[in-house]
């Protein structure tokens, strides 16, 4: 009977294991769904709309094949279309009937004439705004897609590009080669198909257990037969029993014990040999059972609620993500470092703008003449503590960032601007934060902030009035009409300026009071203010202030000599003047300006000051 049960167990085990394996092989459907993206005519760029990427649920895998280098990038659909608006491209979109359609899109806009400098990764690329020269080839006039600040990420591979993606519907993918040759025509997007086989695992495991039981029953059956010395036949005559010779038995036992194995030892060895393959086969089968081969009995975890910031109705998307801002700042710092080393203002201008560029240009002039003149401070990149992008779909757009260098115990605040879709972001304002600066409450990077107009009446002071008001405080101190509107107690910059002016005036009067005069004046700088809103209806405002020192003779026979002042001599281009000199210092200042109705005062957040120019008084 044991053999019958063993055979039944073997048969049932084979059926169960076979059924489980069949579910994972011949009966299992396709694991991916693939869509071929074909176009009717060639174009340098192929735009795959986010609706196509999300036409099937799940992560997407982009596959493009062509000879040579293949480029792909993804970003916000609005940014992609803006970047492509001045060129012809093919677009893959999802029709109203749910079918994938392709269409050729003609140029709808002309690129701007300014602000189209190449990116840090492609600093020598031609400006898209340059007028076409009939002698210029397509390759020379093309704009490379590589390194644009609009891309959230980009990929480059040779001959075959495979990019795993997981993009929402508002993002799209751009595929190209070099911006001149036709984009790859062999492009597909695939999605994984949820094709679980929850009973494959239990069937294979159950079959393996039955197989082990069948083996055990088979071994027990053999053991039983051998112990009973074969099958018994009833009704046959038994042989006559003979007396047993004990001496012969002892000798036989001695022979058996000295060398030949006993029946029990042989049986035990065979049993062990039979069990080991069963365990090995079961382990081999278990290795092929992934998580989707088992029933999911546990309930799906529900995420716990967390605090969130409500996006104001009608607010547009933030200009950049945190990762994107980090990459942009790295590019700016790298280009600025190269320009600093080469004393190249043109290279610096590809990533710097406004007061930052003006100050560095002056520094290059001085370092080109004065051997030991100090180089400008490096632009910090890590770690970025705060990213506040402007929530705006158009241009120009801005991003504020705070970089906190814990090793040096210093922090910097900066404002980046992008003039149009084809321009890189440029650093427009850069300052050091006060040691005890308390930043106002800001929206998270995924929400962004609106840009406050220069003449906004919703703040206690319009942004375009802040520089003039603060300059008046530097000039007149407590006698300024604006003194009560600013928090001056923690303003170390104002205190330092006042102390430096008094010290220099005392030194000048000691030797030249009878023949000359030294005066100080502060005025609003030449660069427009930039302001981003905070959560308390206030704004962070960046402005520039120029400090002008004027020294001139008061005696008709006197002249102002620059014997020991190499800095002013280099910038002015002369060693002495009968009319005198003006020396201008550029201050980059960040303020927190509260909203109307607030009891808070305007607070200085950060500052920097560097020499800007020196001239002979006409």
TrEMBL record:
Pfam families: DUF8094. The chain crosses the membrane at residues 199-220, 272-294. The keyword Transmembrane helix applies. Keywords: Membrane, Transmembrane, Transmembrane helix. It comes from the Bacteria. Residues 317-615 form the DUF8094 domain. Residues 109-124 have a biased composition (Acidic residues). Residues 125-139 have a biased composition (Low complexity). This is DUF8094 domain-containing protein.
